[in-house]
């Protein structure tokens, strides 16, 4: 059993959901990413998602777009991200997921990319702009290197298409909770609750954990997801905003402490015995 699946199994036995924490690798500089991931794990993050910075991040809102620009300006490349993954894996026992748009993967070549990703310790990969209709070679290569292929579903995804997506998905399904781009929201929409309830009926039958992202930034958001059947909450912009706020004054200790405290509050909300 792969590491992501083992993580979900352990959490289920403890009656917990998973906290999946996203940050852009190399933001604000590559040398800090390992420290940031250590702070996330210290706060309770169960899985860490690292974004490979790309010049045209179409699914991301202003907060993560700004992080992408900072990372690119600091010289972060796909190969450097994979080296960061290797450094993290040498120190931490945490599943690592890479989020990359397809262009950097295509440029490197499928075989070479997955060979490098696997040897670095990548457990799963998310490609927001790769439709399942064009993913046969991608999926086949990923399976050859035992890397999970994590696909996305959106509010407009029909049940029929969702079942097709799940045929290509392993590790977990990434459910986009709302229309639009990434970014923190004040409250969970009723649309999101209905979407989770509809989707979990299909993912549970397929045996694929359901992780919900986009707009998730508060403990009460996480509790709502858990209460309505999600297996994991994906939080990105909330962590990225902490990095953005603290990178200006270069107070690394304050940055790392805030990340750990924020992760801890979110993780506490994944325990299913808590009431909303």
Characterization of this structure:
With 276 residues, the chain is an alpha/beta fold. It has a single domain, classed as TIM Barrel. It has twelve helices and nine strands. Strands 5-4-3-2-1-9-8-7-6 form a nine-stranded parallel beta sheet. β6, α8 and β7 form a beta-alpha-beta unit. α2 packs parallel to α12. It starts with a helix and ends in an 8-residue tail after the last helix.
Task: Supply database-style keywords.
276 residues, 12 helices, TIM Barrel, 51% helix, nine-stranded parallel beta sheet, globular, alpha/beta
Strand order of the largest sheet: 5-4-3-2-1-9-8-7-6
The first-level CATH class name: Alpha Beta
What Rg, in angstroms, do the CA atoms define?
17 Å
Number of domains: 1
Average pLDDT level: 91
Low-pLDDT runs? 180-186
Described by strand count, sense and barrel closure, the largest sheet is:
9 strands, parallel
Helix content: 40-55%
What percentage of amino acids are in beta strands?
5-15%
E-strand count: 9
Number of helices: 12
N to C succession of SSEs: HEHEHHEHHEHEEHEHEHEHH
What is the name of the CATH topology?
TIM Barrel
Terminal CA distance reads 33 Å
Assigned CATH architecture: Alpha-Beta Barrel
Overall 3D geometry?
Answer: globular
């Amino acid at each position: 059993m792969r590491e992501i699946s083992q993580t979900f199994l352990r959490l289920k036995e403890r009656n917990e959901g998973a906290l999946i924490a996203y940050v852009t690798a190399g933001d604000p500089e590559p040398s800090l990413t390992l420290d940031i991931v250590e702070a996330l794990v210290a706060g309770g993050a169960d899985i860490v998602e690292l974004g490979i910075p790309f010049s045209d991040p179409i699914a991301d809102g202003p907060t993560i777009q700004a992080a992408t620009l900072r990372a690119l300006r600091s010289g972060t490349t796909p190969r450097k991200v994979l080296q960061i993954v290797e450094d993290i894996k040498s120190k931490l026992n945490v599943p690592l997921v890479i989020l990359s748009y397809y262009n950097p993967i295509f440029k490197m070549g499928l075989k070479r990319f997955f060979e490098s990703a696997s040897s670095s310790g990548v457990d799963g990969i998310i490609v927001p702009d790769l439709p399942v209709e064009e993913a046969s070679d991608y999926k086949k290569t990923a399976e050859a290197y035992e890397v999970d292929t994590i696909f996305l579903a959106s509010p407009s995804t029909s049940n029929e298409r969702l079942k097709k997506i799940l045929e290509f998905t392993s590790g977990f399904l990434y459910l986009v909770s709302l229309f639009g781009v990434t970014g923190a929201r004040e409250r969970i929409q009723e649309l999101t609750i209905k979407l989770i309830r509809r989707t979990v009926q299909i993912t549970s039958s397929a045996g694929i954990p359901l992780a919900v992202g986009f707009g998730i930034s508060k403990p009460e958001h996480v509790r709502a997801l858990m209460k309505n059947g999600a297996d994991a909450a994906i939080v990105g912009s909330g962590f990225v905003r902490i990095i953005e706020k603290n990178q200006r004054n270069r107070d690394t200790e304050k940055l790392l402490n805030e990340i750990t405290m924020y992760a801890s509050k979110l993780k506490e909300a994944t325990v299913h015995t808590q009431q909303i």
